[in-house]
Amino acid sequence: MSQLNDIKLILRVTLNNDIEAFSRLVEKHQSALRRFFLNLTGGNKPLCDDLAQDTFIKAYTHLRQFKIQSKFTTWLFRIGYNTFYDYKRSQKQELSIDSDDMIPLNSSTTQTESMDIYKALNSLNENEKICVSLFYMEDLPIKEIAKITQLPEGSIKSNLSRGRIKLAKFLKQNGYEDYR
């Protein structure tokens, strides 16, 4: 049903230039996209906001190219994935964690726990971080992750496995005994 609602909104935007319909798409999908960027940027909220804004601008300007065979979220996350890598290529220095810009992963997570989780995610290589973020934090199936990243499903499974092991090791070394 959600995909059908997205398609209706997309048609309103593309056929009638309905800005309100696009605003509804943004409202519906911005939390997941921002969470994805927070995970990739180590919790850097201002950078996350900039990347999300760039992604939605690109999505709006290319909305007529959206093919209904895939989910809108898959298409949007693919644009976000590319936006993130465009940013990474443009930067010479590594992203750093600035505790003033950190926000908790969810309402039950403290600021310190969020920082630890972002540090743990930063211990992963880029493919592991992206796969872990999309699979565990965005609850996307492996087939959707493959469409977004254009990685083979076997590589995604390997990245998830290596990522889980590295996260468990990092968290255990930092006082979180129950993580495996």
Short description:
The protein has about 180 residues and is mostly helical.
Distance between the termini: 36 Å
Determine Rg (CA atoms, Å): 17 Å
Helices, by number, come to 8
Proportion of beta-strand residues: under 5%
Query: How many strand segments?
Result: 0
Largest sheet: none
What is the global morphology? elongated
- State the helicity in percent bands: over 70%
H/E element string? HHHHHHHH
Could you please describe the fold and organization of this structure?
This protein is mainly alpha-helical. The protein has eight helices and no strands. It has helices at 2-16, 19-40, 45-61, 72-90, 111-122, 126-137, 142-149, 153-173. Helix 3 (45-61) packs across helix 4 and helix 6 crosses helix 8. The longest helix is centred in the first third of the chain and has 22 residues, at 19-40. The radius of gyration is 17 Å and the shape is elongated.
